[in-house]
Amino acid sequence: QAELKRQLALLENTHVDFDTLEIVRIDQIAHTPYRPIKPNKKLIVAVAILLGGMLSVFITLIQAMVTQRQNGSHLPNHMNNNAHKTRPAPVHGA
Fold first, then answer.
1. In 3-state terms, what secondary structure has residue 36?
2. What distance separates the 2 farthest-apart alpha carbons in the chain?
């Protein structure tokens, strides 16, 4: 509370001359640009295509992971051990 009293006394003893008070000081006059500012359409399209491709790859990977977990497999399909499902190659000339 002593701090509040000190701050109140400081504010009460502050005198402001509102006739000479400047809220804003203008350093230089604002100039309009030589050519109009417009969005760079080529850059926006390129970034959109890049981000869209990255997002689609990410979603595909997540879907594949969820599908594999639902099937009980933690390895991609081409890495599963399917040796028991294949027949041995026939031996010719033996």
1. coil
2. 114
In order along its 94 residues, the chain shows pLDDT tens digits of 899 999 999 988 888 888 888 888 888 888 888 888 888 999 999 999 999 999 999 999 999 999 888 887 655 555 555 555 556 666 776 5
Place of tokens 């500012």: 37
Tell me which DSSP letter residue 83 carries: G
Q: Which helix (H) or strand (E) holds 69?
A: helix 41-71
Which residue's structure tokens are 């499902």? 85
